[in-house]
Amino acid sequence: MNPFKKAWRKLTRPTTIVENGVKLFLGPVAQTRCANGIYSGKHELPEREVVGKTLEPHDVVLEIGAGVGMVTMQCCRQIGSERVHTCEANPALLPVLQKSCELNGFEPELISGMVGIEAGSEEFFVAAQFVSSSRFARGEAVENREKTTVPVLSLPSLLSRIRPTYLIMDAEGAEADLLDARVNLACLNKVCVEVHPKIIGNAAINQIVRTLAEQGLHLSWSQSRGVVLFFERTQPAPQVARAAA
Q1: Nearest residue to 115 via CA among 73, 175, 61
Q2: Which residues of 67-85 are buried (b: 16+ CB within 10 A; e: fewer)?
Q3: Is the pLDDT of residue 245 over 50?
Q4: Cα distance between residue 183 and residue 153, in whole Å
Q5: CA angle 81-85-86, nearest 5°?
Q6: Radius of gyration over alpha carbons of the chain, in Å?
Q7: Orientation angle between helical segments 45-54 and 70-79, nearest 10 degrees
Q8: For every residue of the chain, which 3-state class applies, written as one string?
């Protein structure tokens, strides 16, 4: 990014920016430290690179952990927003996502709530620096003691209803619980997951790799970027094979 453009953004703190051809509304996030990474173009860059190279027109996306919607907007632009379904646990970010969609004329399915194995409700720790918000009491969320109760959406039910071919996940540590052998991932051809070794540990990450491999989704090192891991199925799921026929 042009250094002048980066410096100007940090100085003026705009609430709306254009990044990768889409408008991104930041709202109150513009006044936080997290915005600096967004202004510099580095926010979610590995994930955006992986998705940009692997997302195809026939894919249907289920995203878990939309954040401010940088990856969401990219998916909508690439394949059409009617093929994008995204979940965000932090209720304060839903209006931010909705505004970005309005600015771009996108209409993805925006789902408010945490994703788990079973439906219900759970405490969610909200941090002023939104990237630290999590189901786990850690960091700034602990210091500020800001917590709320949010609905928990069943991942098996979401997979059954949406039938996504591409799962994108940045769940701040919840990936160890969600990518579990109890969940049937047969509809998926691709998984892009950011893992969090400082939260879940290396053993849990190794288990994720094994679990996905057992369901036919194999780790692609060439497409992965650091802690953003990309998995793909050697043989496409039946619905994609029919669409391509």
Answers
A1: 175
A2: bbbbbbbbbbbbbebebbb
A3: no
A4: 13
A5: 115
A6: 17
A7: 20
A8: CCHHHHHHHHHHCCCEEEECCEEEECHHHHHCCHHHHHHCCCCCHHHHHHHHHHCCCCCCEEEECCCCCHHHHHHHHHHCHHHEEEEECCHHHHHHHHHHHHHHCCCCEEEECEEECCCEEEEEECCCCHHHCECCCCHHHHHHCCEEEEEEEEHHHHHHHHCCCEEEECCCCCHHHHCCCCCCCCCCCEEEEECCHHHHHHHHHHHHHHHHHHCCEEECCCCCECCEEEEEECCCCHHHHHHHC
CATH class of 12-244: alpha beta
**pLDDT tens for residues 128-173?**
656 556 665 555 444 455 777 899 999 999 999 999 999 999 998 8
User: How confident is the model over 38-82, as pLDDT tens digits?
Assistant: 999 999 999 999 999 999 999 999 999 999 999 999 999 999 999
The amino acid at 171: A
Token digits for 34? 């997290």
pLDDT 10s digits, 187-228? 999 999 999 999 999 999 999 999 999 999 999 999 999 999
Tell how strand 16-19 and strand 228-233 pair up.
Answer: unpaired
CB hemisphere CA count around 227 (13 angstroms): 17
State the pLDDT at residue 141: 44
